[in-house]
Amino acid sequence: WDAALACTDILVTPGASTDGTAMIAYNADSPTLFGTVYHYPPTKNEPGTMRKIYDWDSGVYLGVIEEAPVTYNVVGNSNEHGLVIGETTFGGVSPLAWTQTDGIMDYGSLIYITLQRAKTCREAIQTMSDLMDTYGYVSGGESFSLADHSGEVWMMEVIGRGKTYGKKGAVWVAQRIPDGMVASHANQARIRSFPRGDPDNFLFSPDVVEVAVHYRLYPADADPLEFSFSDVYCPVDFVNARQGEARVWSIFSQIVDPTEDFQSQYQAYALGTDTGNRMPLYVKPHQKVSVTDVMHLMTSHFEGTVMDSSKDVGAGLFGSPYRPRPLVWEYNNTMYHNERSVATPKTGWSFVAQVRPWMPAPLSGLIWFACDDSSTAPRVPIYSSSTKIAPPFAGKGSQDGVLTPLLEFDMSKAFWVQNMVSNFAYYRWNDVYPVLRSKIDAVQRDLLKHVRMTDEHAMKVYESDGADKAIDLLTIASVNASHRLHKKWIAFYGELFVRFRDFYNIVPKKDEPVCGCVAIEAGLSEETKRRIVSETGDHYKVLDDSDDHPHLLVRGEMKMNPIVASASAVQR
Fold first, then answer.
1. Which of 350, 432, 445, 494 suits a disulfide with 27, CB 3.0-4.6 Å?
2. How would you classify residue 166: left for phi > 0, otherwise alpha for psi between -120 and 50, otherwise beta?
3. What residues contact residue 304 under an 8 Å CB cut-off, 6+ apart?
């Protein structure tokens, strides 16, 4: 369960966004994924040039495929033509998931090879289908998110053909998200039945039903038009609803209806107690969403809902929404689980990608990239046509046959610095997280202004000097922004450490003569006090006849000599 329940995506169509951009948001969640921006420069290849394929998840060598004659510039999960691809894993039924062991193409390689070969969503869908059919598909079921420069946004879901069907590769269905709508997926297949004869909005493999019939997953005499990809290949159960679809419910609930009707209508489904009440594939937001809104949707911990984990005993002294893994655990021969929110500590990297249809294709793609937990890491803007990645964010992945440096601490890498800040917040969540979020929001506002100015400058250069010069400008802007953010985050870690050292909140105080600061004792919440007394009785009770304890407390501080008190708020 833990391995499969990774990643969350949001798909925003141009008509649903405040500025007419298509957006894909993607959290890549894995404790062994190093946060780095993959960069594949464009190439021209002679016939017969071969390429090695390594499984993205495991790093295992899978085989070789023939390279394309021409490949495109790829930055992260976007390319120079404005194509973006994200994913989440749903696994699927056991006869088909991870059973095609003689295949060469895994889902990660599928993404990055397709980005090097396709310009549009439709080209990408066909390219992925061809790659899987030609070389076999070794992964489990996947939901892919796609957006392109034309403004089209698609969801594609695939699952392997298994071992006994007689044909390698995968079956799939792809559905275009109508303009003005927002979709999402999170480790549960979501496309259900689909019409034939509407290629503008629905695409599918010819044998998508036949494979299900072969494995007796769908009756041979049933109506093919009633076939539901999701219900057949990945039936919803308690875990998939509570750990996967609940994240979609969280996202949709925040954008659909301010009266919370949607939230209440599908709450039982999200809780896993009514798995038949399926949510729609996409929703219309009650007001258009901005890129900042999408960034905030990716920070969700189910705040204010029945799944808010920051309110029960597991939240500890500082109200943490997080719990140690695994997600599912056993006590007294009974299985229990932790909630699985959109934001999670194990995120290796995440992005919110924008594709701006009104801009020339080489200038249209922009990824807001973060190296850790999507609620605690800042996002740097990197243009999709960039020809260079700044060293703090640059690197290769296991899909490149490279051992990632997860055991090599390096302050020059954004991954480690952003993890330092995140992990500092985890241990004193209620104290640190509000300060951290305020900092991130301020940083993102400044970077948004920077992007607007860069866009204007790049358009002028594009019109006067051509695409290459404009791309040079965008590359420099991306590299400089990356360096500035990395330097700022190192300094911010120091600020947090100074302020929240030793369980105090140490803040400036100009007239304080010793340190120019005051150390505030955070104390315990009333709920924490109640729980301690309830569990321990009089164990910690201050006895009236004791003479060796502070006998008078004023706002949590020890009463002291007035001269000392004037010099320091807390007795040292």
1. 350
2. left
3. none
